[in-house]
Amino acid sequence: MALVEIRDVRKSFGANEVLKGVSLDINEGEIVTIIGRSGSGKSTLLRCINALEQVDGGEIRVEGKAVRTDMQDLRQLRQRVGIVFQAFNLFPHLTVEKNITLAPVLTGKSNKQEARQLAIDVLERVGLAEKIDAYPEQLSGGQQQRVAIARCLAMAPHLMLFDEVTSALDPELVGEVLKVMEDMARQGMTMVLVTHEMGFARDVASKIVFMHEGRVWEQGTPSELFANPQTPELKSFISSIK
Amino acid sequence: MNLNFQQLWRYQDQFIEGVILTVTLTGIAAVAGTLIGLSGAILGRSGPQPVRWFIRSYIEIIRNTPALIQIFLIFFVLPTFGLKLPPFEAASVALSIYFGAYAIEIIRSGLDTIPRSQIEAGASLGLSRWEVFRHIVLAPALRNIYPSFTSQFVLLLLGTSIASQISAEELFHTGSFVESRTYRSFEVYAVVCAIYFALTMAFKGAFAVIGRLAFRWPVRR
């Protein structure tokens, strides 16, 4: 059984159908990279996996359990599936430590005594332990994004979603975030990324999914897809990003 | 002009009592009104439809009618329905209801300043809607409205003077009383004004200090 099973998922915003029947499996330990032009539905698909968007048709199962939007299920789902956003979305009024420990303490994953140690542990994984008492506004974009990843890690998720996490960063800050993600990939975290970083997709991903007009147009390993695209749409996409 | 402040001096006890009553009235209305404001702002966005409708009507009625008439209604009209409140109590109730309507609107506008992405970030960490509100939305929202809340508070403090019209013995009422005894209109109202001015300045200063202590996190300018 795949960790995430996406079956014929449809999603519309008003009259605009963004996902037109998407099916996809994500297996444990896989690094799945979703690529495609903007408007192809990549981010929407990602946000459907942890129910930030509600699907209009089809079904998504995470660890065999259907994703639903009633509160009890939602809380459990989101403790297993973390998401990192393009704009970091750190809480500006909380220190790095509190940003990280807020959810684990409130959801009972950690108690107040262990919380600081938990924050130190996850911050060490992203190389920012010395920033534990800083406020988000005092950090660079790259550091903020690494804290956002640490905040996610503190929930010990089984799956992490990355929604264009380097797109809002200055070019010189992209590398530090990608390096953290590479480390996580090496440690066996299951990851689904929407990204424009083709180098990262090529080197780290175990599977690449090319989305086009709300559908999974092609999927395969990086070498298959990049060396031997089957459809004219993927061919033109690859040549457009080179 | 022949000024004479000497005569006022013997009324200093009355002035002090007037100040205490004005501050007490302001305090009661500010606390009660803020509680109304918070719950009204929350229920106004996520309560059931009849409740939202009620809150909307409450805000519009209070903000589009004179506070003086609201206070009269509470003091003179409620007794005909069997609820007779003494002047100070009636003024406290009326001003709480009055301040509450403005507080709802101010707090609501503060909640609107919090980007959806903050709420999503909280939700995606498995927090309930209430936890997101309490731990993620509330403090930044209050910070954003703190200046307008402070000015509304000053308006409330100055507005308590209308309680004199139902003979609650606050500062303005004291002034009228002393004026009727001394016939020193200018001196009396100059002193009353100076006291109101000193009070608002003191409260503004206190609010600034509280704000600095409560909202310590750095923000982008």
Topology:
The complex is a heterodimer of chains A (242) and B (221).
Chain A: E1 4-13, E2 16-26, E3 31-35, H1 42-49, E4 57-62, E5 65-66, H2 71-80, E6 81-84, H3 96-106, H4 112-125, H5 141-153, E7 159-163, H6 171-186, E8 190-194, H7 198-204, E9 207-212, E10 215-220, H8 222-227, H9 232-241
Parallel strand pairs in A: 3-8, 3-9, 6-7, 7-8
Antiparallel strand pairs in A: 1-2, 1-4, 4-5, 9-10
Chain B: H1 12-46, H2 49-63, H3 67-77, H4 87-112, H5 116-124, H6 129-159, H7 171-182, H8 185-214
Helix pairs in contact in B: 1-2, 1-4, 1-7, 2-4, 3-4, 4-6, 5-6, 6-8, 7-8
Number of domains of chain A: 1
**How does CATH name the architecture of chain B?**
Orthogonal Bundle
Q: Return Rg of chain B in Å.
A: 21 Å
| Overall form of chain B | flat
Characterization of this structure:
The complex is a heterodimer of chains A (242) and B (221). Chain A is of the alpha/beta class. Chain A has a single domain (4-89, 158-241), classed as 3-Layer(aba) Sandwich (Rossmann fold), CATH 3.40.50.300. Chain A is built from 9 helices and 10 strands. Chain A has helices at residues 42-49, 71-80, 96-106, 112-125, 141-153, 171-186, 198-204, 222-227, 232-241; strands at residues 4-13, 16-26, 31-35, 57-62, 65-66, 81-84, 159-163, 190-194, 207-212, 215-220. In chain A, strand 4 (57-62) and strand 5 (65-66) form a beta hairpin. The model of chain A has no long low-confidence stretch (mean pLDDT 91). Chain B contains 8 helices and no strands. The longest helix of chain B has 35 residues, at 12-46. Chain B starts with 11 loop residues before the first helix and ends in a 7-residue tail after the last helix. At the A-B interface, helix 2 and helix 3 of A face helix 5 and helix 6 of B.
